[in-house]
Design a protein that fits this description.
Elements lengths: L1 H13 L4 H9 L7 H17 L8 H13 L5 H5 L1 H12 L5 H48 L1
Length: about 150
């Protein structure tokens, strides 16, 4: 059942990308040629195991952070970058109708909050990098001008 949930969740998450990318993510199995697909599959599997309580040792929070770090640098809105977490809810409910809906909702909501926090952290880091790069780019011509004088 876990594999079915993972496959459906991966397929729906892959569909958040443009059509050509979706096909590539689904068909290319080489992790070096398809690092996004590989990262998604590996980490979604960890999250599924944690959501279903099958493997308490796995850290779903870390898996969510790895996916969000990758999606934060892609051309996605905040909702698109973290929305993959919510895609799991109907898939799990459909696949496992006996699961406690309150517990599932709580786990998914907590993962979504962690995803949003990580997204904000990543975007702040990207903004800082851009500011530093802009300052550095302006400083080099100024330094060259002073050296000529």
């Amino acid at each position: 059942m876990e594999e079915t949930i993972l496959d459906k969740w991966f397929a729906q998450t892959a569909q958040t990308y443009p059509c050509e990318t979706t096909r590539f993510l689904a068909t290319e199995s080489d992790p070096f040629r398809n690092p996004v697909g590989s990262t998604l599959k590996k980490n979604l599997a960890t999250i599924v195991a944690a959501l279903l309580g099958r493997d308490e040792r796995r850290d779903a929070g870390t898996a969510v952070e790895e996916i969000v770090r990758m999606r934060a640098v892609q051309n996605l809105t905040a909702a698109q970058a973290v929305g993959f977490v919510f895609l799991a809810r109907p898939i799990i409910r459909e696949s496992l109708p006996e699961i406690d809906p309150h517990l599932l909702n709580s786990k998914i909501d907590n993962l979504a909050l962690a995803a949003f926090d990580e997204y904000v952290r990543c975007r702040e880091q990207l903004a800082e990098i851009r500011v530093h790069e802009s300052r550095r780019a302006r400083a080099v011509p100024d330094a060259m001008e002073r050296a000529r004088s």
